[in-house]
Amino acid sequence: MAPTLYITPASPPLRSVLMAAKTIGLNLDLQQVNLFKEEHKTPQFLKMNPQHSLPTLVDDDGYVLWDSHAIMAYLVSKYATSDSLYPSDIKTRALVDQRLHFDSGVAFRTLTQILRPMIFQGKKNVDQKDVDSAHDVYSFVETFLEGREWIAGDSVTIADFSFISSLTSFNVAVKIEECKYPKLAGYLKRAECLPGYEANKEGLEAFIAIVKPLLK
Known about the structure:
- By secondary structure, this protein is α+β, with helices and mostly antiparallel strands.
- It folds into 2 domains: 4-79, 3-Layer(aba) Sandwich (Glutaredoxin), CATH 3.40.30.10; 90-214, Glutathione S-transferase Yfyf (Class Pi), Chain A, domain 2 (Up-down Bundle).
- The chain is built from 8 helices and 4 strands; from the N terminus they run E-H-E-H-E-E-H-H-H-H-H-H.
């Protein structure tokens, strides 16, 4: 029986989990939740996940977990045939964890601060403060990629799935200019060749359909 994943299709965090699952060949039972109808706030869903966040995983033994970073680490640790995506070496894993925390606490948080008012509160533009915040994230990532092919080294890890999903979403609202961020731009081009990238592409198209009409 496949693990169940409660989702909203355009979500960047969801796309990171789907990339991880596709990369390790894991099938998931996807159950769509409509945020605009507040299906994530029903008593049944709140009993499962009091934070009412998506994605939320329910494994085949009833184990419940949310937060995309935690879900990826769990799925790869349990179902992958090697530790390459989430290395067991303590220093390598620590760097992967640092990148995951950066995505959670800085990159995706910034993306949410920019887009939530547009999607849910009717804001119609990205102001200069938002642009500056996005460029702060891009500058950090450009630094992270110095001397590395991928975000935590020369091999793909689950941290890349988080960064790819967040950064391709950022690019919709605040363009990533190759002349300013050559390493970041090259990184995203390499990402398109990854076996699991199609899972990001499909959700990104849904994300663009929501966000593009909100941009002036």
